Amino acid sequence: MNTRTLIIECGVAETRAALIENDETLRFWFGSARGDEAEDVVPRAGRNFAGRVRTIDRSLNAAFVDVGDGLDAYLPLTKTNAPYITEGALIGVVVKSPPRQGKGAVLKYLKDIDIACDAPGRLAPFHDAAIEAVMAIGEGVDEIVIDDGRASAVVKSIGVKADISYEQHSVALFEVHDAQSALETAFDRYAPLPGGGNLVIDEVQALTAIDVDTGALSASSPSRLREKIAITAAYEAARQICLRNIGGHIVIDFPSVSDKAASARFKEELHKAMTRIDGAGAFSFSKSGLFSFTAPHHAQSVHERFTDAAPVAPSPGRRFTLDWQAKSAIRSLEHRLRAAPRAALRLRLGLSLHDYMKARGMWFDRLRERYGPRFDSVADNKIEERGFELSEQ
Q1: pLDDT digits 0-9 by tens, 123-162
Q2: Other CB atoms within 10 Å distance of the CB of residue 389
Q3: 10 Å Cβ neighbour count for 241?
Q4: CA–CA separation, 13 vs 224, rounded Å?
Q5: Residue 82 gets which letter from DSSP?
Q6: Taking a C-beta distance cutoff of 8 angstroms, is the pair 272, 283 a contact?
Q7: In terms of DSSP H, where are the helices of the chain?
Q8: How far apart are CA 77 and CA 280, in angstroms?
Q9: Per-residue pLDDT reduced to its tens digit, 254-290
């Protein structure tokens, strides 16, 4: 029997959640700290925004709109909405798909919506962050575990059909349920396959390519081995796509399975695996054997959202964003303060990270309210600019 559990951590800087089925992490969700919901301006699918029309491109029959995230969002023009869309106008829009690969969100025009502001930005409603986590990835779960008593009460108040419990441990819920290790591997290019081999996952501008690397595996029956690896890879690829929140055009290069009976078995299992990806469709095999399909973009992938380009020679690499590092540092400090009630702690920060966190002093204020003044933070030019170290004083 499958048991689906949603765990929700409510930190001073961030709310994060993980969907777990039979001890296997399937999905993640990241949002604002509770109380900061109006400050969460990430253009997720379904969110309403006030947008300023920057330009209208008649050749594309579209408008480019500023919704406050620094990217020009794309709004198709139609006979219905075109009369209301003029350059410089502040209009109501809803996000159809989020930003991707440096391009802005895709929008839909909202005619009858109250815009109680004079600048681009997110519009109400603003759901409690814990409730938003449940709405985003908690459908059909059997139980919800939350590390904040007030958040637990709020989730109970909306009548969710799941067992809801409040648990607070000396370590994070992500650690207790082994979701943290799954999160850390979600940024790796290589995803190990049970029994050997790897998936090699590359998110590029136009698509995501997944190669099945059999490595040095060998067997007395190579045909049977290819079938087994292909089936294992199908299920793990579906899991990784969900785990990493990958959408758009996806192409997978499976090991060739030439035997007709084996091919039929593989395709049956592949179909089952693809049902795990919400909204996936347009499945096809090319003449060369490449399997391709599309999956909807509800939010950016973890790779795109939480890493940025780094000038690593001879070709560009990736590194965690300042926001990711800042929230990781605050979370480490928060969990250590909880686990060691009498300890005095020092958080040493790289210079760029220190400046970023200094501008977000409310995170430290919240920690002092919860745990008292048992810590300090200092800039340290001996640490990598986005790095941090936590120690007892």
Answers
A1: 999 999 999 999 999 999 999 999 999 999 999 999 999 9
A2: 14
A3: 24
A4: 50
A5: G
A6: no
A7: 129-137, 149-157, 173-176, 179-185, 222-243, 260-274, 302-306, 322-339, 351-358, 362-371
A8: 27
A9: 998 888 999 999 999 999 999 999 999 999 999 999 9
The two three-digit tokens of residue 160, written as one number: 């969710």
Q: Give the pLDDT of residue 330.
A: 98
Both structure tokens of 90 = 């502040």
CA torsion 122-127-131-137 (nearest 10°) is -30
Torsion angles phi and psi, residue 146, rounded to 5: -130, 140
Which sign, positive or negative, has the C-alpha torsion 127, 132, 136, 139? negative
Tokens of 69: 């995230």
Give the integer Cα–Cα distance in Å for 236 and 231.
Answer: 9
Q: 51, 120 in Cβ contact below 8 A? A: yes
The conformation of residue 37, written as its DSSP 8-state character, comes to G
CA–CA distance, 68 with 66 (Å, rounded to integer): 6
**Whole-angstrom distance, CA of residue 73 vs CA of residue 107:** 7
Compute φ and ψ for 170, nearest 5 degrees: -70, -15
Interatomic CA distance for residues 55 and 76, integer angstroms: 12
Amino acid 161 reads K
Structural domains of the chain, with CATH: 4-35+128-182 (3.30.420.40), 48-122 (2.40.50.140), 186-295 (3.40.630), 321-392 (3.40.1260.20)
Whether the per-residue pLDDT at 219 is higher than 60: the answer is no
Here the tokens at position 213 are 């690397």
Beta-carbon contacts of 100 under 8 Å, excluding residues fewer than 6 positions away, are 247, 248, 297, 300, 304
Give the per-residue pLDDT at 196: 83
